[in-house]
Design brief:
The protein is α+β, with helices and mostly antiparallel strands. It contains 14 helices and 26 strands. The chain folds into 3 domains: 3-95, Ubiquitin-like (UB roll); 108-115 and 133-219, Alpha-Beta Plaits (2-Layer Sandwich), CATH 3.30.70; 286-523, Rossmann fold (3-Layer(aba) Sandwich). The protein has helices at residues 19-25, 88-103, 119-127, 162-170, 202-206, 269-273, 299-317, 332-345, 385-394, 402-410, 428-435, 450-453, 494-501, 510-519, and strands spanning 3-6, 9-12, 49-55, 63-65, 70-71, 82-84, 143-145, 150-153, 176-179, 186-189, 212-214, 227-232, 241-247, 250-256, 286-290, 293-297, 322-326, 350-353, 363-366, 373-377, 399-400, 416-420, 440-445, 457-460, 469-472, 478-481. The protein is elongated. The two termini are 25 Å apart. It binds iron/sulfur cluster (SF4) and FE2/S2 (inorganic) cluster.
C-alpha cells in the first residue's frame, strides 16, 4: 500500500486518491469547503491548499518542493510525498481565505439554524483570525424562497457551488446556478423554475454554512439539543440508511447516513419529510367491541382476551379457521413472533401478506455527463417485503395469496383474523371491506382507520421510530435499527405483544428474538449488527466536509 507523510504522520491509501481524501480516510483533518466526495472537484474555495514535496520524476529518491501551494482536494497523492498543512505558508492561506469569506458574512450566528453544525463557525475558530480588519459596509444579499423545502439566505453563502453541482450531477435537474460576478455573485434558481426535485433536501445537508435551510426544521430546535439514532428508512424497499434526530420524545428531522453500497450520502424528500405520521393521529386506547359497547382495557386484559378469542374460535370452528395477515411494514422479528404464536394456538392457521404500495416505476437519477446512476427511488414503498416473504416461506404450509383471500373469506373458512396493519394504510379501505365478513377481527395498528373502526379488538402498536428490529431491502440486505423515541401511551411494539403471548422469558428485545430465530433455522439473523447509537452525531456522517 502506498504511503506518504502528512505533517510528520505516515498515512497510507489504496488505489488513486487525492491528498485530501487520503488524509480524511486516515482521520487527518484538512480544512475544505467545496470538496465533496460524491461530486466533481472544482477546487474553488482554496482553503485546502497545502505545501508539498514530491518525488522528482527523474530521481524518485529526491524530493522537490513545489513552489506554490497546491489544492489538496485536486492533487493526487503520490507515494513518498510530504504534505505540510501547518507550515507558515499554508496557515497564512487558511487565515486569508477565512478572512475573505467572512468579509460579507453577517454576524447572525445566534439566530442562524446552522449554528452548532456550521463549518464556517468551526473553521473560523480553528483556522481563522480572531478579529476582522474590514471597516466597510457588508454587501447585503436577499433571503429567497427557492423551493418547496428550501430557503436560501444569500448573504451567508460562501459560493462553494456544492448545491449547484448537486442539481447538475446527482439529481440531474440543474435548477441552481451561479448568477452575477465578483462580490455580486449569488446562487439562485432560474425564473419560474423553483428547486423542485425529489432529492431537493440534500442540498441542505451539503451546504457547509447556513445558506440553505430546511423550511420544515427552521427555528424548531437548536441542533445541540438533538439526540441522534441511526435507523433504516421505513418509506420504501431501498433500505436507505438514515439518522433520526429527536429531542424529548419528538422527531425533528431525518438526515441521510452514509452507506457506500445503498444510498451513499443521499435520501429522497419522501424519506426526509415522511416522519410526521409518527406524531399524528395515534390510537389512544386498547379497545374491544363487546356486544354493542366499545370497552377500553389494559394490556394484560387485552392479551388474555385475545388468547380467549383465538382458543374459542379454534375450538368452535376447528383448526385452520384463523388467518394471520402480515404487513411488509413490520419488522421481521414481529412477523416471526406473530406467526409462531398464531400457529401455536391454531397449527393450521393460514398466513397471508398484505400488498405493498407500488408507485409507478423505480425513479432512477443519473449524472447527465457520465451517465452513472446516482440514486434510485424504489417504486415499492414497503420497507420489508423481502423479510415478510422470508417469514412466509419459513412458516411453510397454509400460505394464502392476497388474490385468493376474497374467495376464501367468502367461503366462510375463517372465524378470526389477526391483522398487523401497515404504517401508511395505503389499502385500508380495501382490506376493511375484504375482511368484514370474518366474525373476529383483531387489528394491531398505530393509527385509527376504517380497519380499526370495524375491528372487534384494537391494539395500538409502535411506529418504526419507537421500536427495534430488522428490515430486509429489495436486494435482501438485512439491516437492523434501534428505537429512537418512546411510544405514546398505550402503544407497544407488536413483537412485545406476541413475546408476552408466547410466554417467552425475560424482557422483549428484537436482538433476543433474532437469537430465537437463529435457533429455529434462521441463522442469518444471529449476526445482524446494530449501528452505533450516538448521543450527538458527528457532522461527517451526513455532511462530509
Ligand atoms: S448555498 Fe451553500 S452549498 Fe450553495 S454555494 Fe452557497 S455555501 Fe455552497
Ligand atoms: S479548493 Fe480544495 S476544498 Fe475547496
Amino acid at each position: 500500500m502506498p504511503t506518504m507523510e502528512v505533517d510528520g504522520k505516515q498515512i497510507s491509501w489504496e488505489g488513486k486518491k487525492m491528498i485530501l481524501q487520503a488524509c480524511l480516510d486516515n482521520g487527518v483533518e484538512l480544512p475544505h469547503y467545496c470538496y465533496h466526495p460524491g461530486m466533481s472537484i472544482v477546487a474553488s474555495c482554496r482553503i485546502c491548499l497545502v505545501e508539498i514535496e514530491s518525488p522528482d520524476p527523474k530521481d524518485p529518491a529526491k524530493l522537490v518542493r513545489v513552489p506554490k501551494l497546491v489544492p489538496s482536494c485536486q492533487t493526487p497523492a503520490v507515494p513518498g510525498m510530504k504534505v505540510y498543512s501547518k507550515s507558515p505558508k499554508a496557515v497564512a492561506n487558511q487565515k486569508a481565505v477565512m478572512e475573505f469569506l467572512l468579509i460579507n458574512h453577517p454576524l447572525d450566528c445566534p439566530v442562524c439554524d446552522q449554528a452548532g453544525e456550521c463549518y464556517l463557525q468551526d473553521y473560523s475558530f480553528k483556522y481563522g483570525r480572531s478579529e476582522s480588519r474590514f471597516d466597510e459596509n457588508k454587501a447585503k444579499k436577499p433571503k429567497k424562497d427557492i423551493g418547496k423545502h428550501v430557503v436560501l439566505y444569500s448573504d451567508r453563502c460562501i459560493m462553494c457551488t456544492r448545491c449547484v453541482r448537486f442539481t447538475r450531477e446527482i439529481s440531474g435537474t440543474g435548477e441552481l446556478a451561479v448568477f452575477g460576478r465578483g462580490h455580486k455573485e449569488e446562487i439562485d434558481v432560474f425564473q419560474g423554475k423553483p428547486l423542485d426535485n425529489p432529492l431537493s433536501g440534500n442540498v441542505i445537508d451539503i451546504c457547509p454554512v447556513g445558506a440553505l435551510l430546511d423550511k420544515d426544521f427552521m427555528f424548531t430546535q437548536r441542533v445541540w439539543f438533538l439526540k441522534t439514532t441511526p435507523s433504516i428508512s421505513p418509506f420504501g424497499s431501498g433500505g436507505e440508511n438514515i439518522l433520526i434526530q429527536h429531542n424529548q420524545g419528538r422527531i425533528y428531522r431525518i438526515k441521510p447516513r452514509f452507506n457506500a453500497e445503498i444510498n451513499k450520502w443521499w435520501i429522497s424528500d419522501d424519506i426526509r419529510y415522511g416522519w410526521q405520521f409518527v406524531h399524528e393521529n395515534r390510537l389512544a386506547e386498547l379497545r374491544v367491541a363487546d356486544a354493542a359497547h366499545a370497552l377500553p382495557m389494559a394490556w394484560e386484559q387485552a392479551e388474555a382476551r385475545l388468547e380467549q378469542t383465538l382458543l374459542r374460535s379454534v375450538s368452535e370452528r376447528g383448526q385452520g379457521s384463523t388467518l394471520l395477515m402480515l404487513s411488509p411494514f413490520d419488522t421481521t422479528e414481529e412477523m416471526f413472533l406473530a406467526a409462531r404464536y398464531i400457529r401455536k394456538v391454531d397449527p393450521q392457521a393460514a398466513i397471508g401478506l398484505n400488498m405493498s404500495r407500488i408507485d409507478g416505476q423505480d425513479q432512477v437519477f443519473t449524472n447527465p455527463t457520465t451517465g452513472q446512476v446516482t440514486y434510485t427511488i424504489r417504486a415499492d414503498k414497503s420497507p420489508n417485503r423481502s423479510g415478510a416473504e422470508k417469514m412466509r416461506r419459513h412458516f411453510g404450509d397454509n400460505i394464502v395469496m392476497f388474490n385468493d383471500l376474497a374467495s376464501q373469506i367468502a367461503s366462510g373458512r375463517y372465524a378470526t383474523v389477526v391483522l398487523l396493519a401497515d404504517a401508511i394504510g395505503h389499502n385500508d379501505d380495501e382490506l376493511a371491506a375484504l375482511l368484514s365478513p370474518i366474525a373476529n377481527r383483531i387489528v394491531l395498528s398505530s393509527r385509527p382507520s376504517r380497519l380499526t373502526g370495524q375491528a372487534t379488538m384494537v391494539l395500538p402498536v409502535c411506529t418504526w421510530a419507537e421500536k427495534s428490529g430488522v428490515y430486509e431491502n429489495f436486494e435482501g440486505r438485512v439491516q437492523a435499527f434501534e428505537k429512537a423515541i418512546e411510544p405514546p401511551e398505550p402503544a407497544r411494539a407488536a413483537g412485545h405483544v406476541f413475546w408476552n403471548m408466547l410466554g417467552m422469558p425475560g424482557t422483549y428485545s428484537a436482538a433476543q428474538v433474532r437469537q430465537v430465530m437463529a435457533d429455529h433455522g434462521l441463522s442469518e439473523y444471529a449476526a445482524v449488527s446494530i449501528p452505533v447509537h450516538h448521543e450527538k452525531v458527528e457532522l461527517m456522517e451526513f455532511s462530509p466536509l
